[in-house]
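As a warm-up, study this chain.
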Amino acid sequence: MLVLLAAVAAALHAMSAGIHLFGVAALNPTWRELDGPAYVLVKQAADRRFPMLMRPFTLLGLVAVVALAVVATVAGEQPAGALASAGAVAAVVGLVAVVRGDLPINQRMATWSAADLPADWQEERRRWERWFAVRTAAASVAAVACLAALATLGGQS
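Now compare it with the structure written out below.
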């Protein structure tokens, strides 16, 4: 049961981290090459789709890693419990980055007109990219912590 919970938490966080790393490594640099109007249209389209994909990974992953931390600790699996706790902290940091950074900026960008961009649109994009980098780092730490917790549980059933 514990190994299954660790595998679920690891899978959810690994997929989330992979999606975010792809964004940092490929999508964001590509979007940065677009002119203002094209960037806004692409970003607005992505922001209509991306939450449908990421919300389940984020919330289910958070629940899974917190459950893993609690169950592993109660079961006396201190290394796995400590690693899962670190993953849970990272997942919370990622959620805070979304709520305090990504989401408010995305909501502002959703109101922009491609034909009439705000004067500071490039600074707003840079601010969003910084929050997205924090979110990506947190997702990566959570994934590594969950994978390490799974590895410490080894072949247990």
